[in-house]
């Protein structure tokens, strides 16, 4: 199963994102379930959220992954939505 995590940063939280970026990227590498990921950008080209596509066995696993993300633990996000997602195009 695939799940999309749609995460929006708290306003003015770019520094929190930058301070936790290495831990976030390490978590992605260590867990091995992220198929695609990247930041949303605001009008100024600054990171302001994240889209993460997970390949996991259940919604509960996606929720657990999201809760363990260093960005989430640092309080970066104002909102996180988890949706089951079906890939139609792309490898």
Describe the model.
With 91 residues, this protein is α+β, with helices and mostly antiparallel strands. It has helices at residues 14-31, 59-68, 70-73; strands at residues 2-9, 34-41, 47-55, 77-85. A hairpin with a 5-residue loop joins β2 and β3 (47-55).
The share of residues in extended strands comes to 35-45%
Rg, Å, rounded: 13 Å
| Unreliable stretches | none
Report the span from N to C terminus. Answer: 15 Å
**Mean pLDDT metric:** 97
The chain-level structural class is alpha+beta
Number of E-state strands: 4
- The neighbouring-strand order within the major sheet is 2-3-1-4
Helical proportion, percent range: 25-40%
Query: How many strands, what sense, and barrel or not for the largest sheet?
Result: 4 strands, antiparallel
User: Number of DSSP helices?
Assistant: 3
Order of helices and strands: EHEEHHE
**Assembly level:** single chain
Shape assignment: globular
Keywords:
single chain, 91 residues, alpha+beta, four-stranded antiparallel sheet, 37% strand
Task: Give a short overview.
This protein has 91 residues and is α+β, with helices and mostly antiparallel strands. It has helices spanning 14-31, 59-68, 70-73, and strands at residues 2-9, 34-41, 47-55, 77-85. It is built from three helices and four strands; from the N terminus they run E-H-E-E-H-H-E.
Topology record:
Blueprint: E1 2-9, H1 14-31, E2 34-41, E3 47-55, H2 59-68, H3 70-73, E4 77-85
């Amino acid at each position: 199963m695939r799940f999309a995590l749609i995460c929006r940063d708290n306003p003015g939280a770019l520094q929190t994102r930058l301070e936790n970026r290495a831990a976030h990227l390490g978590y992605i590498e260590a867990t091995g379930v992220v198929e695609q990921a990247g930041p949303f950008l605001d009008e100024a080209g600054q990171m302001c959220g994240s889209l993460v596509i997970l390949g996991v066995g259940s919604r509960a696993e996606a929720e657990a992954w999201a809760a363990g993300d260093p960005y989430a633990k640092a309080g970066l996000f104002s909102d996180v939505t988890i949706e089951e997602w079906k890939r139609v195009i792309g490898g």
